[in-house]
Amino acid sequence: MSREKEKTKKYFMKVSNSRKLYLPIYLMILVLIAVIIFIKYNDLNLSTPALVLVVLFILLSIKFTELHRWSNSYKITRDSFVHTKGILNRKTRSMDFLAISDIELRQNFWQRLLNYGDVSVRLYSGESDNPAKNISNPKKFADCLEKMIHIKRRESSNW
């Protein structure tokens, strides 16, 4: 990889919470829209305040799910695993690959069915368990993280 590409590519993989996590909320929004369409189609009476409340609920639901998604991001960089938390007040934790003892992938039945789940990272010190929660394709993320750990360990043993 050329130096220019190496400088521009700051991380190998970046993920945040999966939208699949919010599937029940999105289904509820679709049901509300279907009910409104049904009411309008059958010329039933729908009060203006009820319509305003439904539209407000839909907009706020979409806004808050996206804010929640953006509040956590997980990156695999050249040297470390980085977890950034928060929107206005940010907290960033970087864990060097050489300090990571193991990785655990957790998925329940529905998560496996929808291909999202949690990847936990444990340090040798045993102090921390930093899960990358509800991310899409957690197996791919865990494999990439494991690959980078092995590369870093090989590099350090050659010194």
Structure description:
It is a single chain. Mean pLDDT is 88; it is low at 1-8. The two termini are 21 Å apart. The radius of gyration is 21 Å and the shape is elongated. The chain has 159 residues and is an alpha+beta fold. The protein contains five helices and seven strands, in the order H-E-H-H-E-E-E-E-H-E-E-H. Helix 2 runs antiparallel to helix 3 (48-70). The protein has one domain (1-159): PH-domain like (Roll), CATH 2.30.29. The chain has helices at 3-8, 23-41, 48-70, 109-114, 138-158; strands at 11-16, 72-77, 80-85, 91-96, 100-106, 116-123, 129-136. The strands form two sheets. A four-stranded antiparallel β-sheet has the order 1-2-3-4. The protein has a three-stranded antiparallel β-sheet with strand order 5-6-7.
**Total number of domains:** 1
CATH class value: Mainly Beta
Classify the oligomer: single chain
The count of strands amounts to 7
Helix-strand string? HEHHEEEEHEEH
- What is the overall number of helices? 5
Largest sheet at a glance?
4 strands, antiparallel
Name the beta content range: 25-35%
Rounded to an integer, what's the Rg over CA atoms? 21 Å
Tell me the layout of helices and strands.
Layout (H helix, E strand, L loop, with lengths): L2 H6 L2 E6 L6 H19 L6 H23 L1 E6 L2 E6 L5 E6 L3 E7 L2 H6 L1 E8 L5 E8 L1 H21 L1
Antiparallel strand pairs: 1-2, 2-3, 3-4, 5-6, 6-7
List keywords for this structure.
7 strands; 3-stranded antiparallel beta sheet; PH-domain like; 159 residues; disordered N terminus; 4-stranded antiparallel beta sheet; alpha+beta; 5 helices
